[in-house]
Amino acid sequence: MGRPPRHDVDRLLDAAAELVAASGPSTVTVAAVARAARAPSGSIYHRFPSRSSMLATLWLRTVDRFQDGFLSALNTEPAARAAPAAARHVVAWSRAHPHEAHILLYGPADFDEPNWPQEARDRLERSDRRVRNAVRALAERLDRREPREVEQLFLATVDLPYATVRRHQSLGRPIPAYAEDLVTSCAATLMRS
User: CA-CA distance, 124 to 109, in Å (whole number)?
Assistant: First the structure.
């Protein structure tokens, strides 16, 4: 039985996430991750055939981790509580995972998405489709089928909470303790209008 790898994928991606949080995705290179993780470059190339592959894996891992709770919140019963629960999740998850929250404040293009392997781009599309479908399913449950109403739901569950997270992170400040209550209240108000 061989010994476990000293530089596993998660440890390397955690180092990459720290680089993104400190200086943005353009600083995530194989050499920079190797230095941050104290790993030889060969360990990184052994796990990721290219920088684009590493960036794709970082983005998709982060999205998957975030979406687990977000999609669950969108299925909250009764349906009227789902949008506020989803908004709360965005802020709570971002506070609990500050490095990964920085990643999600960018977009896939900032992580070299045009050069990702096709399998990663397909996975990204499935992931995006899951969120769109979940928000639309919530709109159906709420009997809000008009395009304006669906857009309002995206505003309440995605745009507003991310704007709150972005403002504090861009200033280098921690997200205040009241932020979850604030976005929850705003989402509930939007859903009543």
Answer: 11
